[in-house]
Design goal:
With 239 residues, the protein is of the alpha/beta class. The protein is built from ten helices and nine strands. It has a six-stranded parallel sheet, with helices on both faces. Strands 5-4-6 form a three-stranded antiparallel sheet. Strand 4 and strand 5 form a beta hairpin. It is globular, with a radius of gyration of 19 Å. 36% of the residues are buried. The structure holds adenosine-5-diphosphoribose.
C-alpha cells in the first residue's frame, strides 16, 4: 500500500532550528536592547540585570522586571511568531530563544528553549530548582518558595551561568536548516551557538539591520513578520 503523502512527509521531517532575539518580538511592541531607543539606553544593565544589582537594590530590580511583565501582558504574538508556529506542519521546529517573553509559546510553537529565563516565572533564592508561574504581572517581596525564601525573577542575569546552553548546543548540532532572527549576536554563549552548526547546513538571518555576521549566511533584510514569510517560501526547497 502506498504511504499517503502527508504521512510520508511527517516521517521525513527535517529539523529546523531557529535562534531568536529581541528583534523577533519588536513588532509585538517589545523593545530591543542595543538599538537607538533600546532598553539598555534607558537603563544601566549593571543596575538591573546582575546578581550584584539584586544584592544592592532589589526594589529597583523587582520594579524593572515587574514593569517588563506588565507590558508583556498587553502584547500579542506577531506574524513572525505565528509563521514559525505554522512551520511545524512542515518541519521539526526547535526554537532557541534569548527572549524572556512567552510569545513563541502563545503563538503555538511547541518546542521552545529559553536561554535567558522566563519573565512569567519566579524562582527560589535558595534552591534554583524551585520555579513557579507568576499569576498576573507582579512579583512581590514576601512571595516565598516552599522553603520559605524570597522569590526572584526567573531570569539569567549577566554574570550568571546559562543552564540551558548544553541542551541548546545539542539541538543546534542536529539542525538540517538553521535560522537566526532578530539578534545582534552580541551576547555569549548564545551567539556562539552558530559555531556548532554542522558544515553544509543552510543558514539564514532575518534582521532589518544585521550586525556581527561572520558566518556564510543568507541574509533576509526584513523585520521578523515579513522575514518569516520569505523564509517559509525559501524552505520549501528542503521538503
Ligand atoms: N525584526 C527582526 N529583527 C529586528 C527587528 C524586527 N522587527 N527590530 C530590530 N531587529 C534586530 C536589530 O537590528 C538587532 O540586530 O534585532 C536585533 C536586536 O539586538 P539586541 O538589541 O542586541 O537584542 P538581543 O540580540 O536579543 O540581545 C541579546 O542581550 O541584554 C540582553 O539578555 C538580553 O537576551 C538579551 C541579549
Amino acid at each position: 500500500m502506498e504511504t499517503p503523502f502527508s504521512l510520508n512527509r511527517i516521517n521525513k521531517q527535517k529539523k529546523l532550528v531557529v535562534l531568536t532575539g529581541s528583534g523577533m518580538s519588536q513588532e509585538s511592541g517589545i523593545r530591543t536592547f542595543r538599538e537607538t531607543g533600546g532598553l539598555w539606553e534607558e537603563y544601566d544593565v549593571t543596575e538591573v540585570a546582575t546578581p550584584e544589582a539584586w544584592q544592592r537594590n532589589p526594589e529597583l530590580v523587582m520594579r524593572f522586571y515587574n514593569d517588563r511583565r506588565k507590558q508583556l501582558c498587553e502584547c500579542r504574538p506577531n506574524a513572525g511568531h505565528t509563521g514559525l508556529a505554522k512551520l511545524e506542519t512542515l518541519f521539526d521546529v526547535h526554537i532557541i530563544t534569548q527572549n524572556v517573553d512567552d510569545l513563541h509559546e502563545r503563538a503555538g510553537s511547541s518546542k521552545v528553549l529559553h536561554l535567558h529565563g522566563e519573565l512569567k516565572k519566579a524562582r527560589s533564592t535558595v534552591d534554583p530548582s524551585l520555579v513557579y508561574n507568576i499569576d498576573g504581572w507582579e512579583l512581590k517581596f514576601g512571595d516565598v518558595c516552599e522553603k520559605g525564601s524570597q522569590l526572584r525573577p526567573h531570569i539569567v542575569w549577566f554574570g550568571e551561568p546559562v543552564p540551558a546552553i548544553e541542551e541548546a548546543v545539542q539541538i543546534v548540532q542536529q539542525a538540517d536548516v538553521f535560522a537566526v532572527i532578530g539578534t545582534s549576536l552580541n551576547v555569549y554563549p548564545a551567539a556562539g551557538l552558530l559555531n556548532y552548526v554542522s558544515d553544509g547546513v543552510p543558514l539564514y538571518l532575518i534582521d532589518p539591520n544585521p550586525s556581527n555576521v561572520y558566518w556564510q549566511v543568507d541574509i533576509i533584510k526584513e523585520k521578523a513578520g515579513r522575514g518569516v514569510e520569505i523564509l517559509t517560501r525559501e524552505l520549501e526547497k528542503f521538503l
